[in-house]
Design a protein that fits this description.
The chain is of the alpha+beta class. It has a domain of 150 residues: Beta Polymerase, domain 2 (2-Layer Sandwich). It has eight helices and five strands, in the order H-E-H-H-E-H-E-E-E-H-H-H-H. It has a five-stranded mixed beta sheet with strand order 1-2-5-4-3. The longest helix has 46 residues. The radius of gyration is 24 Å and the shape is flat.
Length: 251
């Protein structure tokens, strides 16, 4: 039979576990909030322009083990409040776009939203890392509405093109294979590949812009035709007539 001390310790452990579980849940919900925002923008853009600047979106939530390791690296005390203040990348989403201009476009659309507070912005597209890495990095704060409180949550947002994403994926695999001790010749080749990927991004966007200008009229016609069946909602005739009258200013 447990004594009073053991019972108190067990109760304290349960409280700490519950607190940390809710802490992690808030970051999961923060990801959900941002994913909803991104998907709304994507769907609306497709509806309005028959084109989406977003190719695909992924998300990740750091595991408790990863949080513990990072806290040790940066000498962060192991308390929920200290972890919240010092570790900003527990929740993260990655948005892959078709073109460089799309990364800026989506970044601007997200950060203009009233409940998105930009904490940090790093432009690795304009100012690449020494190894050639390119991407936009944002730390944003979003409110998460829990049952008993509103929890402000940091979410890391990365925006990159398909070419940048391919390069970053390859770079990660190489660094993992060599346990970060990558031979100098491979580092040089990766840097050259990053430069080539950036040239490809620039060239492809230039071609896209030229084609868009040449086919501007045709694209508008195609968009109008496509939108007619995108959201085929059954609207009653009475409602449609009422909306038409009100748009004319009639009673």
């Amino acid at each position: 039979m447990m004594g009073a001390r053991e019972m108190d310790e067990l109760s304290e452990l349960k409280d700490i576990k519950n607190e940390f579980t809710r802490f992690m849940m808030s970051y999961k919900f923060g990801i959900d909030e941002m994913m909803t925002k991104v998907n709304v923008l994507k769907d609306e853009f497709i509806y309005l322009h028959n084109y989406s600047p977003i190719e695909h979106v992924t998300s990740r939530l750091k595991s408790p083990e990863s949080i513990l390791k990072k806290a040790g690296r940066i000498n962060c005390p192991l308390s929920v409040d200290d972890i919240r203040k010092n570790i900003w990348d527990i929740a993260g989403i990655r948005i892959t776009c078709s073109f460089i201009s799309d990364t800026y476009k989506i970044s601007d659309m997200l950060t203009r939203q009233q409940d998105v507070n930009v904490i940090q912005f790093k432009n690795y597209i304009e100012h690449p890392k020494p190894n050639g890495y390119r991407s936009l990095h944002l730390i944003v704060e979003v409110p998460v509405f829990m049952s008993d409180r509103v929890a402000p949550v940091y979410v890391e947002v990365q925006l990159r093109t398909i070419a940048m994403d391919f390069w970053a994926s390859l770079e990660h695999k190489i660094y993992y294979k060599y346990d970060r001790e990558v031979p100098a010749y491979l580092v040089d080749e990766l840097r050259d590949a990053a430069t080539a990927a950036n040239r490809l991004d620039t060239k492809m966007e230039h071609l896209h812009d030229k084609i868009a200008k040449l086919n501007d009229g045709l694209e508008r016609e195609e968009t109008s035709a496509d939108l007619s069946g995108l959201l085929a909602l059954p609207l009653p005739d009475v409602l449609l007539k009422s909306l038409v009258l009100r748009s004319r200013g009639d009673q």
